[in-house]
Design a protein that fits this description.
TIM Barrel, two-stranded parallel sheet, DNA polymerase, domain 1, single chain, alpha/beta, 14 strands, elongated, about 350 residues, 10 helices, about 30% helix
Length: about 350
C-alpha cells in the first residue's frame, strides 16, 4: 500500500485524510506543530496522539522531505545545500547568517524556464515544479541541520519562478503563516518574480500577504528583453502597473532587484530612467553587482560605476542598497544556483 506523505499537505488535505481513516478533522491541527515547529521525522514522536492512533498512522502515512542532501560552506558562513528528491531530481538552497538572525533562500522549481541570460539556473531549462513538501522541506532540513532557533527570514529567490508554481506556493505560504504551522510573520517571507504579471495579481489577493520582490534589471524594454525573455510577454509598462496595484501595508515597500552588468545597464542614464520609472511606487532597490561565472559572458560592474549609480539614486531620494551576494566562493550567490547535467525545456512564461 502506498503511504500518504503528511508533510506538505494543506490543512484541508490533512483534515480530509484524518476523516478518511475515521478520525475527527481536528487531528490535523494536533499534527501540524510536530511537522513544522518540532520538525519530527517519526510519527511515533507525536505523543499528543494516542498510541493506537499512532499505530494506524504508521501503517498508512509517513513523513518525507528529501531522500538526502549534501552541503558546502562558504568563507562568509553561508551554506549551500543540494537536496536529492525522491525522483532523483536535485535542487539547491542557501542558508545565510545575517546580523539579526538568518535568511534562507528557497527554490520553487527544478531548473527554470525563464531563460534569463545572466542567471545560471536559466541554463538548466525547466524540469518540474517542486511540491509543497519539497518547498517546505528545504526550510525544515536547513533548520534541523543548523540546530537553529533564532529569528529567520525566507526569500523565494533560488531556482525557478515561484509564480509559475502557484498551487504549491500557496499551500506552502498557508503552512508558513499558520499558528499551528511555522507561525511566521508574513513580513519575514518574500516572493521574488521575474515579472509574471497575471500571477502578481493573483498573489495580491492572498491573505496574509507576503512581501514582493521584482527582478527588474533594466530600464528600457529593448534592454530588458535582451536578458529577460519574459519581457516580450509582459513589458515594463505592464509590470509596473501590476506593482502600482499591489496592496501594501503602511510601512511596506516592493523590492526591485537590479542586477548591474558592466557596460550594459550600469550608466547614469540607466539610473535616471530607473528613478523616473519607480516614481509613485513605494519601493526600494537592491543593487546587485553581477556575480561572474565562467559559463556566462557578462562581467561585474566597475566599482566607480556601481557607486556612481548608487549615489545617483540616493540623490533622487530613491531608497536603495548595494547588496553584495553571500556564498560567491561556493556558487551560492545570486544567479549562480544550478545543478550540472540537468537539461529541461527552455521557455515557459
Amino acid at each position: 500500500m502506498t503511504k500518504i506523505n503528511l508533510f506538505g499537505l494543506s490543512l484541508s488535505e490533512l483534515s480530509d485524510y484524518f476523516e478518511s481513516i475515521g478520525e475527527k478533522r481536528f487531528r490535523a491541527k494536533q499534527v501540524l506543530p510536530w511537522l513544522y515547529q518540532k520538525w519530527v521525522t517519526n510519527i511515533d514522536s507525536m505523543t499528543n496522539l494516542s498510541k493506537d492512533l499512532r499505530q494506524v498512522l504508521i501503517q498508512s502515512a509517513e513523513i518525507n522531505t528529501f531522500k538526502g542532501m549534501t552541503k558546502k560552506k562558504s568563507r562568509d558562513g553561508s551554506v549551500k545545500y543540494l537536496f536529492n528528491c525522491f525522483d532523483d531530481k536535485q535542487v539547491e538552497s542557501v542558508f545565510m547568517p545575517m546580523k539579526n538572525g538568518y535568511t534562507m533562500c528557497l527554490s520553487s522549481q527544478v531548473g527554470c524556464a525563464q531563460a534569463c541570460s545572466f542567471c545560471m539556473t536559466g541554463t538548466m531549462g525547466f524540469i518540474r515544479n517542486l511540491t509543497s513538501a519539497e518547498i517546505l522541506g528545504q526550510v525544515v532540513c536547513m533548520l534541523r541541520d543548523q540546530a537553529h532557533d533564532r529569528p529567520f527570514n525566507l526569500v523565494m529567490m533560488g531556482m525557478g519562478e515561484p509564480l509559475l508554481n502557484m498551487k504549491n506556493l500557496e499551500i506552502a505560504l498557508d503552512l508558513l503563516f499558520a499558528k499551528t504551522g511555522f507561525n511566521l510573520s508574513p513580513k519575514r517571507v518574500t516572493i521574488s518574480t521575474s515579472g509574471h504579471v497575471k500571477n502578481i495579481e493573483r498573489l495580491s489577493r492572498f491573505k496574509p500577504l507576503p512581501r514582493l520582490a521584482v527582478s527588474l534589471n533594466a530600464t528600457t524594454n529593448e534592454q530588458r528583453s535582451e536578458i529577460m525573455p519574459i519581457n516580450d510577454r509582459w513589458p515594463i509598462e505592464a509590470l509596473l502597473q501590476a506593482c502600482r496595484s499591489f496592496p501594501l501595508g503602511t510601512r511596506d515597500r516592493i523590492t526591485f532587484e537590479y542586477v548591474v552588468i558592466r557596460d550594459f545597464n550600469d550608466s547614469i542614464a540607466d539610473a535616471k530612467r530607473l528613478i523616473g520609472m519607480l516614481e509613485g511606487i513605494r519601493s526600494k532597490v537592491n543593487i546587485i553587482p553581477f556575480n561572474e561565472t565562467p559559463e556566462l559572458p557578462y562581467r561585474q560592474p566597475a566599482d566607480e560605476d556601481l557607486h556612481a549609480f548608487h549615489e545617483r539614486l540616493n540623490r533622487a531620494g530613491l531608497r536603495n542598497t548595494i547588496r553584495w551576494s553571500k556564498g560567491r566562493d561556493i556558487g551560492a550567490a545570486c544567479g549562480q544556483l544550478a545543478v550540472k547535467g540537468i537539461k529541461g525545456k527552455k521557455r515557459r512564461v
